[in-house]
Design brief:
Elements (H helix, E strand, L loop, with lengths): L2 E5 H11 L4 E4 L6 H13 L4 E3 L3 H13 L4 E5 L1 H17 L3 E9 L5 E4 L4 H5 L10 E3 L4 H18 L2 E7 H5 L1 E5 L33 H17 L6 E4 L6 E4 L3 H15 L4 E6 L1 E3 L3 H9 L5 E6 L4 H9 L7 E5 L8 H12 L1
Parallel strand pairs: 2-3, 2-4, 4-5, 5-8, 7-8, 11-12, 11-14, 14-15
Antiparallel strand pairs: 1-9, 5-6, 7-13, 10-12
């Protein structure tokens, strides 16, 4: 297949176009600005609209409107911008509308800085906005996956009629790697059963997130809970050199790249260490994690992340009741966990 040297942010746009995305609405923010920049060039080039909204609140509501018409739409931003989108994302979840939101995470809280962090984990995985809802959340670990998982986000979003988020960070968004272009485009989805379009058979469709009767709203929420549970069949993960590992690193995104290199270096020193990488953060591959943690007696886990332990807390939640020691190696503020730090942490536990 043809390859192209691109930034991770650009790979997102390529993936969206191959997914059949009909429109891009967004507002630029570092370190995600290249998403809007590339979309501004490539969407009009293939006859699809790009619109720079006046703010992030407007852009997510434009995605809502396009989704209500049955169109594939997306937006992208970073921490503060994603925060402004939370109301609209909650509305989309309540109205059961598909759409893709990309978050190239930066350091926070507040304006923070433009360095990489993973501190938007809870915001993405736990819903973030008001009400009881979940986003589908996918976490790429390479420029290739920035493309591939954006395509996958569209597939899952329309399969479940639910917002899907692709969460990455300032490193993966800005780094350049060869991208193998997708073999095919995703075909259009028939949305006439629920979308509101200018046709006689869709005029009776009704899309809203306001349900004033308490019993009806409770029933609606219970239906959503069942839908979220059904998503578990699409949980995705990767195991690396785990067969005989005494210590299993658990990491996603850029931290999984660092952890993988540390695993290889420690294996050269005779240390038995492996890696568990969740690719979907919601649905979380909990059963696979529990199986991996229990696959060898006395196996310990070391979570590697760029936040205060938000991801580690979910690992602990998934392992509730299991007698597994879980520790944390983390950095914040735009600092990366270095390969050397990871190797030292592994050596101190197994050396």
């Amino acid at each position: 297949m043809p390859t192209k040297l691109v930034k991770g942010n650009e790979a997102v746009v390529i993936g969206a176009l191959y997914a059949g995305c009909d429109a891009y609405f967004g507002y630029p923010i570092t370190p995600a600005s290249e998403i809007a920049q590339a979309a501004a060039v490539w969407f009009p080039a293939v006859g699809r609209p790009f619109l720079q909204a006046e703010c992030e609140t407007a852009s997510i509501n434009m995605v809502y409107g396009a989704a209500a018409a049955g169109k594939k739409a997306m937006t992208g931003s970073s921490g503060p911008g994603i925060s402004l989108m939370q109301e609209g994302i909650s509305y989309m979840a309540g109205a059961q509308l598909p759409g893709v939101i990309v978050n190239i995470m930066r350091a926070g809280p507040g304006l923070g800085n433009i360095g990489p962090e993973q501190s938007d984990y809870n915001q993405a995985v736990k819903g973030g906005g008001h009400g009881s809802y979940h986003n589908i959340v996918l976490a790429p670990g390479s420029v290739q996956e920035m493309c591939d998982l954006t395509m996958r986000a569209f597939e899952l979003s329309f399969k479940y009629r639910n917002p899907a988020m692709v969460i990455s960070d300032a490193v993966l968004g800005q780094m350049m790697e060869p991208l193998e272009l997708p073999a095919r485009e995703i075909p259009p989805v028939d949305t006439r059963a629920w979308a509101v379009q200018a046709t006689a058979d869709t005029r009776r469709n009704f899309i809203t997130s306001i349900i004033l009767d308490p019993d009806e709203l409770e029933a609606h929420n219970r239906n959503l809970v069942e839908k979220y549970a059904s998503m578990q069949v699409d949980a995705a993960w990767e195991l690396y050199r785990d067969d005989d590992a005494d210590l299993l690193l658990v990491a996603y995104g850029i931290c999984s790249r660092i952890a993988r290199t540390a695993v290889d270096l420690c294996r050269e020193r005779g240390l038995k260490v492996g890696l568990f990488r969740p690719i979907s953060l919601f649905p979380f591959p909990g059963a696979a994690l529990r199986h991996a943690a229990a696959a060898k007696a006395g196996r310990r886990l070391l979570v590697v992340e760029l936040s205060t332990g938000q991801f580690r807390d979910d690992v602990l939640l998934q392992l509730a009741g299991a007698r597994v020691q879980v520790e944390l190696l983390n950095r914040m503020g735009g600092n990366l966990v270095s390969v050397e730090e990871a190797v030292q942490a592994i050596t101190s536990r197994l050396g």
